[in-house]
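Below is one such record:
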Amino acid sequence: MSAKNQTLYPKLLLAKSKEASWKGAYTLVGHTASVVEAVTTLVDELSDQLIAQFGLYQHRKTLRATARLAAFLHDLGKANDHFQAVVRKLKNPMKHPQLMRHEALSVLLAWELRDWLATGEGDFKIAIAAAGGHHLKLGGEGGRQTDEIGEIRESGVDTWTRGDRLLLYTNHQHFTGLLRYGQKACELASEIPQGLPTVWTIADIKQRRQTILSELAQWEPDPVLTAVVKALLVAGDTSGSALPANDVAIRPWIQTQIHYTLTEPELQHVVDERLKGDLLRPFQEQLGNATSRVTLARAGCGTGKTLGAYNWAKRYAVGRKLFFCYPTTGTSTEGFLDYAHDKVDSTLLHTRAAVDLEHLDLHSTGDDDDLETKLESFKAWSTKVSVCTVDTVLGLLQCNRRPMYCFPAIAQAAFVFDEVHCYDDKLFGALLRFLEVVKAPVLLMSASFLPWQVQAIESAVGEAVEIIQGPEELETQPRYRFHLADAPDWERVKAEFKQGGKILWVCNQVNTAISVYHEARQHDLQPLLYHSRYKYGDRVNHHREVVDRFKAEGAVMAIATQVAEMSLDLSATLLVSQIADPAGLTQRLGRLNRRYCGHALDAIFYPDEKVGFPYSQDELDAGAALVQSFGGEVCQVDLAQWLEKAAVRGKPDLDSVWLDGEWRTYPASLREAGYTTTVLLEQDVKTVEKLSAKRLPRYTVPLVVSSKQTKGWEKCRRYPVAPADAWGYSSDMGVYQL
C-alpha cells in the first residue's frame, strides 16, 4: 500500500458531484428519494396506459410496488469508498477504475437485505434485476451476453482507496437513513437490518456473485413485467437526476409531459396543410377508417402513404403521442420537414438530430453514459409527434439507450413504421416482438408485403390484420421502361441532360460513384455527387443540394450510391443504375417518374463486376432476373407482384435482450452488421475535442473498415480515429484512402 494511502470517512454519502444547483438531491438519500418520486409518478400517471399497452392487467399492484422497490435499491451500491472518492474527485477513475460498478454492488448489497426487502409487496428479484441494469451494463458487454453480475476490475492503489477491497459504509448514519427511507417508501418491516458487512475483498465479491447467479439461474420471471420495470427505472433515474439539478419539481413536470398528447384538430391541421384544398384519395380515407389495431398499408412510392398515415392517426393517436418511424436518418429528416415541422408540436429524434436543450444540465458522477442522449430524450416526453429512425422505438427490444430513455413516451403512443420492406431479419424480428408485446395501435407501410411477412405479422399480433391497398389508378400507371445494357449509354445521358432532363445515376460502391462523377464532369454534365462517406455535416449539404436542384427548373444530374434508395425525395426523368438486389432496384425505381409525367420513362441497368460487396452473386442474379422479366412498360403493381412471388422466406431474428434477458440488461445490435465503421479523421481531432456532444456527429464518417483493422487506432470521444497518413478528405469527394 502507498505510504500516502488514507481511509475515507465522509460526513455525507453522495450520489452526485456536489454542486450548488443540486440542493439536497446530490446526497445518496436525496437522489434516491428523487428517483423513487419520479418512478412513482410515472407509474401513477401512466398506470392505465402501461396496463393496456403491455397487457399487465394481473400485475397492477405489483407493478407499482416493484418499480418503487427498484428505485429505492438502484444506487445502494454507491455507499463504498471507491465511488465516494470518485464523486469527490479524490480518485481518478480513468487511471484507477472503481473495483466494481456501483449498480452491480447494489445487487450484491440488496441480496444481503433480501429477507427484509421481501416483506414488502414488490417482486424482489425483478427489483434487483432492474436496479442492477439501470445503466445498461449488467450481464453483457459489447452487445454480447457475459452472464456476469458486474466486472471486477484492476483498480490499483491510490491516495484514498485500496485496489483489493471495498470499504462499505453500511454503518454510516446516512446509510441507516437510506434504509429508514426505504422502509417507509416500500412499506417494509419496521426493524432495520443490522450487522451488514463493512468490508468486501475480491474473494468476498466473487463468492456473493456466484451465490446470486445460482439463485437467478432457477428464476422464471414474467418477461413483460420485468422489462417494463427495467425501462421505468432507466427513465425515472434520468428524470430524477436532471429535474432537481435544474430546480424543476419532479411530479408536476412529469404529469404535464404525460398528459401532453394529440388532439384531432391538430392532426387535421397536418392533413389540411398537406392537401392545400384538395381531397383525400379513397385509400387515404380507408386508412382513416381502419378497424384493426394493426393495419398494413401496401402502396408504392409517391402514392400519398404518409398523408394517409396522418389521417389514420386522427383515429388512433388522439389522446396519445405519435411516433413516426423511418428506416434511415435521411428519410426521417425529410418526413419531419415535409409533414410535421411547423404544422404540429413535433421533434426530430435520431442520432444526428441537433437538439436545443441548453437550458438543462446533468452533472457527471463518474458514469460514462451519454448525457446528451438523455437530455435529447426529454424531447420525446415533451412533444406530441416524434419523427425518428425506427431504432428510436424498436431499439427498446435490445435495450438501446435512446428508447429506454424515451420509454414514458413510447408507453402511451401510437406508431407508424414506414418502408417495412427494407428491414433486415434482425430489424423485422424486433418488429414482430414489438407487435407481440406492445398492444398499441400500429400502422405498417410498405411498397410490398411478402406473404410470409403478413403471416408472421398476424401470428405476432394474434389476429388477422387489415391490409389497405394503395390507389389502383396510380399504381397501375405505366411508369418505367427497362433497358439492360453491358455498359452505360453516355450518349443517352447527354441527350437527356441537353433536353433539360433530371438524371439519377445510382452505383453500388462509393469508388464507382466517384469514377462516374469524374467521367460525367469530362462530358460537361455538371454532376452532383452524393454518397455516405462524407462527414455528416457535409453529407447533409450534399443531400440538400441534390433535393433542391431536382425541385428547381432546368437540367440536373446526380450520382449517388444506395443512399438514394430511400432518403432522396425526388423525381428523375432518367434512371441509370448498376444491377443490385431486387429490393434495392425497386427502391431506386421509386425515384424515377415519382411525380408521374403521364407516360413511362427509361431506366437503364448495367452489371456490377464487384461481386460480394455489397451484393452476393445470388442477389445480383435475382436483380438481373427482375429487369429481364419485363419487356414492355412497367407499373408499380408489376414490381410488387414480382417481389411477392420471387422473394425467399426470411429468417427473422426474434431474440430480445429486453424481453429474454431475465436479470441481464445491456444494449445489443438492432440491425445486422454492416460493412462500415463510424470514425473520426485524425485531422479533425483538435476541433472535435472542444465540441459539445450534439455537434460531434457533424464530423463522423463511415468507413469500409472492420473492427480488426481499427483495433490499433487511437480513439477520440469513443470513436476510432482514422490516421491522416492513410486517409484523406475532400468536402466534394468525401473520404479517400491514400
